[in-house]
């Protein structure tokens, strides 16, 4: 089967956890809504239109790494409860330096072809996280893959919580499995067309597997690489 693989690289990237305020830690991976927002920018459509267009897509995320991570000091404007008065506040925001990600997308060939052409010649500037964190490299390509029921995974995102017995130690990894991180990610947004702001609608849990383990479950297999796929909208 034909899969669209998109390799991304940027100078910096930051994906703020919605639960954090004063110290804004970042997810280690781009949330699905950020990725679809990038697709929408490439195709020249609004974010809500892009969310609808890719609601049936199967997606996979692999974190290829970054050179470093740090914190930046930001001054932001906040409003009071009545949204009438504004005041300034200082926050620390975490960022990744020279991050690289690979996105896998499985959908109807017509949709993948349109996205491929759009990423080759995007309508708007592409970014991940904040608007000023522009992507410096984007490489979409079609590859052949198939499904497997088990395989070794590392630095990938799994939707939901792992079930007992779903992973075991890899023979290539003699270290014990450390505690894997689970993140509560915004599922969707409701856009206020009159005032322009957006409100989170629902949340999903995602597990980031940052060690090499053997995974038992359906995986996308590309040569010797295995990637979990999931539908972000469910």
UniProtKB/TrEMBL annotation:
Record's keyword annotation contains Nucleotide-binding: no
UniProt keyword list: Antiviral defense
GO biological process, one term: maintenance of CRISPR repeat elements
Pfam families according to UniProt: Cas_Cas5d
Name of the protein in its database record: CRISPR-associated protein Cas5
CDD domains named among the record's database cross-references: Cas5_I
Organism: Kosmotoga arenicorallina S304
């Amino acid at each position: 089967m034909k899969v669209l693989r998109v390799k991304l690289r940027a100078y910096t990237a930051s994906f703020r956890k919605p639960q954090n305020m004063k110290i804004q830690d970042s997810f280690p991976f781009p949330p699905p809504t950020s990725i679809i927002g990038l697709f929408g920018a490439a195709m020249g459509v609004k974010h809500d239109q892009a969310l609808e267009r890719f609601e049936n897509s199967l997606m996979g995320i692999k974190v290829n790494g970054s050179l470093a991570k740090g914190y930046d000091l930001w001054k932001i404007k906040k409003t009071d409860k009545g949204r009438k008065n504004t005041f300034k506040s200082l926050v620390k925001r975490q960022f990744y330096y020279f991050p690289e990600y690979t996105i896998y997308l499985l959908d109807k060939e017509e949709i993948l072809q349109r996205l491929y052409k759009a990423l080759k010649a995007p309508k708007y500037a592409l970014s991940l996280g904040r608007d000023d964190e522009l992507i410096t490299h984007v490489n979409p390509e079609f590859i052949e893959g198939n499904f497997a029921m088990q395989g070794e995974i590392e630095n990938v995102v799994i939707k939901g919580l792992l079930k007992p017995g779903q992973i075991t130690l890899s023979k290539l990894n003699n270290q014990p499995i450390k505690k894997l991180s689970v993140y509560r990610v915004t599922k969707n947004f409701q856009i206020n067309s009159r005032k322009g702001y957006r409100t989170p609608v629902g949340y999903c849990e995602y597990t980031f597997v940052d060690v090499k383990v053997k995974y038992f479950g359906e995986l996308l297999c590309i040569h010797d690489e295995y990637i979990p796929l999931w539908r972000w909208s469910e």
